[in-house]
Amino acid sequence: MNETLRKTADLFRDIARSVAPPPKLAVWEWADRNRVLSSESSAEPGPWRTSRAPFQREPMSAITDNRYETIVLMWSSQVGKTELELNTVGYFSDHDPAPMMFVQPTLIMAQDFSKDRLAPMYRDSPKLRKIMRVKSKDSGNTVLRKSFPGGQIVLAGANSPASLASRPIRIVLCDEIDRYPASAGTEGDPVSLVTKRTTTFSNRKRILVSTPTIKGVSRIEKFYEDSTKEEWCLPCPSCDEYQPLKWSQIKYDYDEAKKKTLRADHACRACGALHNEQEWKAGYETKGKWIARQDHSTTRGFHLNELASTFVTWETIVHNWKEANKAGKEALKTWINTSMAETWEEKGEQLDEDSLLRRREMYHADVPEGVKVLTAAVDTQDNRFEVDVIGWGAGHESWRIQYHIIYGDLNQAQVWADLDEFLQRTWMDGEGRRFRIAITCMDSGGHFTNEVYRFCKERLARRVFAIKGDSPGDGTYLPLIAGTSTNNRYKATVVRLGVDEGKSKVVSALKLPFVDEAGNRVAGCCHFPLSTTDRIRGYEKQYFEGLTAEEMQTRYKNGVPYSVWVKVKARNEPFDLAVYNRAAIEMLNPNLDAPLPPPAVPGGVPVGGPGSGSSGRRRRGTTSSV
């Protein structure tokens, strides 16, 4: 009888919660009272304090402001945007229960987010733990769906139309929308699809969050431009002029030898006075405020870069800037996107095979000075293997070593034996060191997939890996090393590559000059050798035509712009192999700054092969991607 009464009381309580309006409370106020940060995901576990990052207060207030339907956060990394989203989920789970959907770029990322971030929050925040315990016996509580009295949260992937299937949703949180595909299958733009789920609610909310990507393609930039366009501003310690913190106004001294920032000041845009971070951020919680640059009736937009962060110092930001400049265009692009929360504007120039052909130079040895390790890439065709061997040095500077084509019928054993023999060769530098290939990536597409798997499986000890390129072609973001699998008849390790990112990295490196305006060597630049009478290198005009066989173009799907690589010439094997080699060096992850071992005595062990010396080893404390 008592159990029946308890269930009846719970039922009436749930009904009352769903009918009666909750008392007025902002998301940040709820978080300050109830949120507990989990040790798995926070460097400072324990009770949430909005005062730790006061710039989050106004966006969290805007989420519960009935005047606005959409909140846009074009924010950098290291400013707590994920925690803000989790606070929002907690608020609409406990204080104002509602049906919610949290959309990640992919379904796998949604599953990981649920396990790594959402579940710990419900577990460690007492009020959330209590409401989840009420429903703990429900079969409806899964990784991608969690119910609570008065509502539920569904985790979805922007690449999965099924996960975005029609259901009434009042609160939509879209995370990292610049990484969404242009279309969820054939259904259309994921942001538009999930927005349609909210139409039956007059008090609906849509929270759009992302670091930006490429100008003209960035979703978050487009939404931000159609908003109040607010910036977090601080008063100048000298003249009290309110202004946002801008990288262009940072003045610094940096010790290149020690890789240390000696000074980092911000210049006032009004009076020009220089003040350090502590001076600008004195009284941060009371003096900082958001200033809008335009009016908007339904959408508030907030832009925030890493300079405003209370979790990373200006000295660290300067250091990261210097390191990104050394690492090349792709690293600089990432820094602009993730640290400054700004879009990257592509210059639009196309690679020209003739200009690359003219860059060839005479090597004075098989392996030029500066090379620390060799990688190889193999393209598999029906009647041949094409192999490209590349040497890598500090800052991912690269030297092509040899482009080799092995013709033969791949149904016959001899051509496979010839490939095996080539991959075991060594190349010598000017001081007598012999280099062998440290790692090989081999294409497993085409008509000989199982044969490639067997070949690689038998040579795993030599780090010969089968790879499978993945290019969704719809703007979906995939990292270059996207995962591994052994789900094949030979249990061979197959590495999945996000080739679109790989192509961007290759093209960025090919555009780099050898030296900058000051005469300093440019990190990440590419070298090509001339053939000689006694050494045919293989880098002739046909090679460079293949290396420049694709270009990035902007396409539109249902009105949404996205970037796609398009083949503009007949053969692109050299371009593919350049991507595989880039993947190989990232999988190996050697310490390219370490000095080479002294030249071996005659008959000694060659540099770079598995177990053969420091240049082929990974950095201590790091892990391989495979």
Automatic annotation (TrEMBL):
<dbReference type="InterPro" id="IPR046453">
    <property type="entry name" value="GpA_ATPase"/>
</dbReference>
<dbReference type="InterPro" id="IPR008866">
    <property type="entry name" value="Phage_lambda_GpA-like"/>
</dbReference>
<dbReference type="Pfam" id="PF20454">
    <property type="entry name" value="GpA_nuclease"/>
</dbReference>
<feature type="compositionally biased region" description="Basic residues">
    <location>
        <begin position="616"/>
        <end position="626"/>
    </location>
</feature>
<dbReference type="InterPro" id="IPR027417">
    <property type="entry name" value="P-loop_NTPase"/>
</dbReference>
<feature type="domain" description="Terminase large subunit GpA endonuclease">
    <location>
        <begin position="299"/>
        <end position="591"/>
    </location>
</feature>
<feature type="compositionally biased region" description="Gly residues">
    <location>
        <begin position="605"/>
        <end position="614"/>
    </location>
</feature>
<protein>
    <submittedName>
        <fullName>Phage terminase large subunit family protein</fullName>
    </submittedName>
</protein>
<dbReference type="InterPro" id="IPR051220">
    <property type="entry name" value="TFA_Chaperone"/>
</dbReference>
<dbReference type="Pfam" id="PF05876">
    <property type="entry name" value="GpA_ATPase"/>
</dbReference>
<feature type="region of interest" description="Disordered">
    <location>
        <begin position="596"/>
        <end position="626"/>
    </location>
</feature>
<feature type="domain" description="Phage terminase large subunit GpA ATPase">
    <location>
        <begin position="42"/>
        <end position="290"/>
    </location>
</feature>
<dbReference type="InterPro" id="IPR046454">
    <property type="entry name" value="GpA_endonuclease"/>
</dbReference>
